[in-house]
Structure formats: C-alpha cells, structure tokens
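Human:
If only I could read backbone structure tokens as easily as an amino acid sequence. I am handing you a single protein, as its sequence and its fold in token form. I hope you can help me see how the letters and the tokens relate. Thank you; the sequence and its tokens follow:
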Amino acid sequence: MKIDLIFTIVLLAISIQLCLSQLGGRRDQAAAKATANKNARTSIEDFSLQFYKSLANLPEVQSQNIFVSPLSVWALLVLTAEGAQSNTLRQIENNIGTVQNFQREFREIQQDLLISKSDIKVIGEQLAFSDKSLPVKREYEQLIDTYYNVKLQKLDFSRKNAKQTYERINQIVEKVTGGKVLKPLNPLDIIDAKLVLLSLMYFKADWTSPFNSSLTQTQAFYDEKDVEITKVPMMYQKGVFPYMASKQINGHVLELPYGQDKSMSMILVLPRKGTPLSEVVENLSQMKMEEVYNQLTQSIIDYEDDEVEVLIPKFEFNGDYQLRVILEKMGISDVFHEQSADLSRLTDDNSIFLNSILQKTKIIVNEQGTEASAATTATFIDKITPPKFFANRPFFYMIVNKEKKLILFMGQVGNPSLTEVNKNKGQSRDQ
C-alpha cells in the first residue's frame, strides 16, 4: 500500500486556456513548445487563469463566492515537479511549463512577495516538512534549498508524536509569518503523512483612496438575471481611477490601487447587464494581462481629469477548498494515484503519492482596504458623462502587482452576504 503525501496551501487575507489542443501534428508540437518555454511570470499568469476557470466551471460553485490563490498552487506544483519523473512530471509541466526554466526566477518572485510597508504588507512563504523515516534524496533537498529557498525540516509524523509535531509546525509557521498565519493544519492532516508542503500567503493593504464610511449604505445586490437576492452594505466614492469598458471582455474593468506607491491593486471586472460572469472570465482569458494593464494605464492618460463613480459591496469570505478534483480536470492526475505516481527524483521510496491538496482562504474588503491572505480608443467608452462602476451584481476580481506581473489572488462575488466560500468544494469523490 502506498503512503499518503499531503500538500497544504494556507492563505490568510483578504485564461488563456493552456490545455494542449487535440488538433494533432504540428499544432500540438507548437503548443507544447510554447508551454515548455514559458518563464515563471508568464507561467503563473496562464496557470492562474486556467486554474480559476476550472474551478469556476464546477456546477457546485457557479454563481457562488470564490476566493483562491492560484499562485500558491503553482508554487507547490513546481516543488512537486522537481521531485517527479516520467508521466507524473509531464502532466504537471503540460500545465505550468518546464520547471527548470523557473529556477532562477523563483527566488526573485519570493522577494516580490515580501512587502512590509505601513500601508501594504505581503508575506509569501513555502515550507517543507518530511517524516524522519522518509529517505528524501539529498539532491532534491539541495535543489529546493538552492533554487527555491525551501529548507526541508525532518519531524516525526507517527501517531504517537503527531500532536507534538503539529504544534511544532504551527510554531514555525507563526514565526516565519510574524504571527499573521496561525494553525494552518488540523492535527489529523499530519498523522502518518510522509511529506507536508505549505505555501503561505498573507496580504493586507489600505486603499490609496479609502472609502468614506459615512457614505456606505445598505442596498440591493442582484443576481445575473437582475433579481434581487440580498441587501448588503455598499461602499461609495467618486474619484480618478483606471477604468475601461471593454468590447473584448464585454464588461467594465476598474482598478482600485493600494498604498501610496500604488504598487498593488484590486482589478474588478463587471459584466455588462445580461452577460454571464463566466463569459466575461472566458473573454478575459483570451487576453494577455499585459494588455489589460496597458489599457488601464492608458485610460488615465487619456481621461486624467474624469472621475468614476464606484459602488462595491463590503464583504468577508472564508473558504476551505479540496483542490484535487480541479487539478485532475486539468490533466494532473498520476500524482494522486498510488499505481501511477512517480516521485523518484524526490525519494527512493516508491510508496508515496499525493493524497490531497488543500487551500484555506479568507478575504476582508471594507472602507479602509483589503486583508487576505497597446490600447486603442475603440476599447474605451466615450466619457461624455462620468462613468459608473456599480458592482451590485456578480463580479470577478484579482489582487495583482502590475509592475512585477504577479496575480496573487482571484475570486468572484456572487452573494456578498454569505461568509462561507464553497466549504469543501472541489473534493475528489474517492477521498
């Protein structure tokens, strides 16, 4: 019997479809080559959109609230791929590209995920723990330390010492995150496990232009059919923000920056009335994010004195995701099955496979800010009157660092009055 390998992603805060087309011959080869040659930042962007679409297309989460960090999933897939071989490796690289291409960039990205300012704080960390009985290859330990700044820590995962090990991991997590992430695991998560990988993400930032709480009023929130589903506190302000009404996306795009340096921002995408949110996300996935960023920047240049009326809900979501079924839908399946998992570059013990990949999330959006854990004029509407971005119906959002070309979080608001985000959705049937 094979031994479980558990990966956990923990967040506290708040596409381009890359599945190789089955068109045969040269087009398959060209697509595979393009995927293989990606750099890390392009890989993160493409994987994020593909992953989000796979999640959002699950029947049980459509029209619901979603909040995830594909970046954290990507980071753990990279660490997994470095220990994988044969078809297990190919399935992962078909989705993220050749992992050896990311080795030089990974530490740079880690540095980009460490921001500590008075108005923006970002923490991104990866940790690895193995049971002391697992013979991890020295080459793998050295590789993840050298290129990914991940030092493997050996602990005792036996049932007898599970509680002590659980407390030790929590102490380490609390230390590396400055107390921002607490108890990412349940005690049962580590009993008889052989390897635990953690990807921790924390984000907290103040809006560059905070909302005035005295203007927040309870208003109706509608579904995609324009039927009122709830009443929630809606925040309002009018100001100069990057904004566009895009024919390509068939929706409105607004950027709300964080901090005085505006290095981070939330990008909100609101479908035109009558347009399903899924269609807007699909349209967005056909564009490069660089194009979206450029068009938003150009909108400020073209309409620097024009103000946008902004109305968005206050919301707070908690999520608990089992991501195995989503990754299997994307073609990453061998690593989850005892007969097919090949992690022979990680260990000579051929009995391990990936049992589960978990993600816990939280996002808080209020008047103060957020806590989580070539443009053409035809693209923009004519701003004869001040445009309105009234997000009183389902919308999509991302938290990004445009300068560093990183998407940290993605999600959608289907009903802002709900606080639980799809608890335990995406769980494989055989678990």
Remarks:
- The chain has two domains: 40-114+120-205+317-363, 213-314+387-416.
- Residues 213-314+387-416 form a domain with the Alpha-1-antitrypsin; domain 1 fold (CATH 2.30.39.10).
- Residues 1-34, 374-386, 421-431 have pLDDT under 50 and may be disordered.
